[in-house]
Amino acid sequence: MAHATPPDCLIVAGSREAHVLAAALPGAVLVDNIPAHLNARAVIDASHPCERGIHSRLATLCAGQALPLLRYARPGWVAQPGDDWRMVADGVAARAALDPEWSRVFLCLGRDERAAFAGDESRHYLVRTRRDDPAAEGLAYFTLTAKAGPFTAGSEADLMRVHRIDALVTRDAGGEGAYPKIEGARLVGLPVVLIDRPPVACPIARSVEEARAWFASL
Asked: Distance between CA 175 and CA 66 in Å, rounded?
């Protein structure tokens, strides 16, 4: 029985740019989940730039199978005049960075990092979520706000004013889709606790051209 030819490159999806990257690399196959065996010549992690677990697992699998691995992630945000950023490593550090005087915090994080704020009875959180239930995660006082956009700097600023927000907590996702909340915080003059991207154990490409050059060099 004939066996399927392994793809030249396996791309793990999760970011907006993953499909563009797959189209630009002939012989590439895009997958949503990590297979138990990475049957390919090379692997590109194109999951969300702030994703931790997927990259860690891919790094372990690629090391075990002696496969080259590339992390593909759009550039992070760059602070502009008027920005007040407090860079931290993870959700636990983000909670520790909250000033005691900040009683109302806009929380724009995923479930895993949001869990670090469980049990905090000293603040009210405005939580942007698609379907998760913060009450099950132990947040004492919270209000939900929908995750569906599109958002603008003005609408985000208005949201923060209406809810009397003292600070924004979010991740350095980069790109344009999530940037309006950063602009909104700037307009209102609010500090931003920004969770940095996790370190990676492989080369990084910030553009399709860089990823193609990496693959061509193998």
From this structure: 32
